[in-house]
Amino acid sequence: ETGVTQTPRHLVMGMTNKKSLKCEQHLGHNAMYWYKQSAKKPLELMFVYSLEERVENNSVPSRFSPECPNSSHLFLHLHTLQPEDSALYLCASSPQPVSSYNSPLHFGNGTRLTVT
Amino acid sequence: GQQVMQIPQYQHVQEGEDFTTYCNSSTTLSNIQWYKQRPGGHPVFLIQLVKSGEVKKQKRLTFQFGEAKKNSSLHITATQTTDVGTYFCAVTSGSRLTFGEGTQLTVNP
Questions:
Q1: What does each of the 109 residues of chain B score in pLDDT, given as a tens digit?
Q2: DSSP single-letter state for residue A98
Q3: Residue B50: what are its φ and ψ, rounded to 5°?
Q4: Are the Cβ atoms of A42 and B50 closer than 8 angstroms?
Q5: A67-113 confidence digits (pLDDT tens)
Q6: In angstroms, rounded to a whole number, what is the distance separating the alpha carbons of residues A36 and A87?
Q7: A19 near A11, Cβ under 8 Å?
Q8: Non-local CB neighbours of B93 within 8 Å, separated by 6+ positions
Q9: Nearest CA in chain A to B88
Q10: A41: how many CB neighbours lie within 10 A of its CB?
């Protein structure tokens, strides 16, 4: 149990589908993140939310749309994805935004996404 | 954004041998974090270094932050099969935490 729960664990979708990834943190943290992890690439930051406000959008294509309805929940809405979007999508949370010292990230188990 | 180079990319060792991974930056870092990701798992926070020249130990793991705060290392003494995984350094720039490419460690029993 990581304290950060992601669903689903695995997702296969066609390029014309619309799906959503869900993340829930039970740690009382104020910041949440989406990262993308592809094979042979470093972890890529996608979005950062601090107190439900988006503070970072790392030049992510518009086919990825984040939503943070409250400080415990984070969604990533997906539509018209491409095969190269297949990756492990990791959600994380931290007590405060990383700009504060001593704010390590707590990751969920990730959603393994395959786009066919 | 802030970038770090991490070397080596891969390291294969015999159980009992030592292991070191390095992170290097061209700019001065405010702090550096280290994470471990087991195969099939997610990154898990290990430690954060903040002070110039700081050295911290966790059992067989020793973490160092360079005097100029531009580099850091993680050293494992007498590796065990449980040490298998990818070790990442990560640095802060504003609200971003940017990860290095990681060093994938395999340990032969």
A1: 568 999 999 999 999 999 999 999 999 999 999 999 999 999 999 999 999 999 999 999 999 999 999 999 999 999 999 999 999 999 988 778 899 999 999 999 9
A2: T
A3: -125, -40
A4: no
A5: 999 999 999 999 999 999 999 999 999 998 776 666 899 999 999 99
A6: 7
A7: yes
A8: B1, B2
A9: A42
A10: 11
- Kindly report the length of chain A: 116
pLDDT of B106 reads: 98
Rounded (5°) CA angle A109-B97-A31 = 65
Average pLDDT over residues A37-48: 89
Interface of B with A (CB under 8 A): 30-31, 33, 35, 41-45, 48, 50, 88, 90, 92, 94-102
Separation between Cα atoms, residue A67 and residue A54, nearest integer Å = 9
Strands (E), A1-116: 4-7, 10-13, 18-25, 31-37, 44-50, 53-57, 64-70, 73-79, 87-94, 106-107, 111-115
What span, in angstroms and rounded, lies between the C-alpha atoms of B102 and B91? 13
pLDDT of A1 strictly over 70 = no
> What is the rounded distance in angstroms from the CA atom of residue B107 to the CA atom of residue A13?
36
Chains A, B: CB contacts under 8 A, how many? 55
Peptide bond before residue A69 is cis, with ω within 30 degrees of 0: no
Q: For residue A106, which residues of chain B lie inside 8 Å, CB to CB?
A: 45
